[in-house]
Amino acid sequence: MTPRLRRGEPTDAAAAGDICYRAFKTIAEAHGFRPDFPSREAAVDLLAEFLGHERFFSVVAEADGRIVGSNFLDERNPISGIGPITVDPSLQNAGSGHALMEAVMRRSQEREFPGIRLVQAGYHNRSLALYLKLGFQVREPLACLQGAPVGKSGSARSVRPATREDLPACNHVCLRVHGHTREGELADAVARGTARIVERSGQVTGYATSIAIFGHAVGETNEDLQALISASESFAGPGFLVPTRNPELVQWCLGRGLRIAHTMTLMTIGLYNQPDGAWLPSVTF
User: Fold this and answer.
1) CA 159 to CA 251: how far, in whole Å?
2) Does pTM top 0.85 for this prediction?
3) Is the distance from CB of 228 to CB of 219 less than 8 angstroms?
4) 50: closest CA among 78, 79, 86, 94?
5) Which of 58, 140, 212, 217 pairs as cysteine with 266 (C-beta 3.0–4.6 A)?
């Protein structure tokens, strides 16, 4: 099968979301894990948001006049992020996934992003092989953590909702940690009301767009992230991602009753700065 690719449209949300739900459910359950999306509706809602967002590039694959897969490129930040990429489970290994990946990688190159990132499920060997063949490098092993809210951290730091006035200070922290900002993503989270900042002695020392798999966080120290995690009333979806090479933070989370749901891998092409500080990635990067 040779798929035909085209730009995604808001009207594709139902078909693409259904495939997204079934694809993640099939691969997760085949390996004994819970699906990332709890329902078809959740997947449809997420893809509808991406398809309607002016700073997401979307592409769908069609065969015999029907959608068989989709992929997305997050263009809100100086570094582009890929995903979610999904293909109809009945059409795996037929070339659609490779074509969808090449389409967003070509788009990132055309838009002159200096780097691309994605996060893949640790149990999905087929996607790991595809990304390695396409030139991605493994950068960071991640643990997806889930459980009940951990409650107060006992830290002297304070956490409050972020406002647009906090954006410059938040971007400054992200620039220090990653060498670039995630200003577009952060601005969206502030508008949604999910973003939180952590302060010490009146100074912003970190922020989180949300403590969830589609959110990210940065902080000057682990204590900043601990305060943000402690202030979260729940961990939406399958949980949130923590770099396992940060043993202090992982051990702190496990010591408060959180459990590792599964592992993931951060992969990149192009510019990548080794983070200098504490951070939680999103499922995009």
Assistant:
1) 22
2) yes
3) yes
4) 86
5) 140
